[in-house]
Amino acid sequence: xxxxxxxxxxxxxxxxxxxxxxxxxxxxxxxxxxxxxxxxxxxxxxxxxxxxxxxxxxxxxxxxxxxxxxxxxxxxxxxxxxxxxxxxxxxxxxxxxxxxxxxxxxxxxxxxxxxxxxxxxxxxxxxxxxxxxxxxxxxxxxxxxxxxxxxx
Length: 152
Known about the structure:
Layout: E1 4-7, H1 13-30, H2 45-54, E2 57-62, E3 65-75, E4 79-87, H3 96-107, E5 112-118, H4 122-130, E6 134-140, E7 145-151
Parallel strand pairs: 4-5
Antiparallel strand pairs: 1-2, 2-3, 3-4, 5-7, 6-7
């Protein structure tokens, strides 16, 4: 069976938030120096419902069950921003992230794709760079530094 991508619905919100929570909390296992958590709203069903209503939001489905979520912000001038991607950690290292990024680029053609990832998330940085994304900047906040990536 292959990975499929389906538009998320309001009924999917709770499941997708559970996936996000598990994925982001697993980061503290991979990187013990960071506290358990995630980006603002990662654990909010209300925020997920808002994303589903306002932006392209996809559930990643494998063998009939949701295993991931992608939230995409389509901006003007042919710019698409990957606001978030989360895959259940038990499905990591199977190529699903690569398939998700290929889906993004095929389903949402753009002249420029952007995304942000934490400075401590070395695994994410390697993944995005492998797919042709280039680090173009960084923004520091009181509790985190984000690296900005783009692909043209």
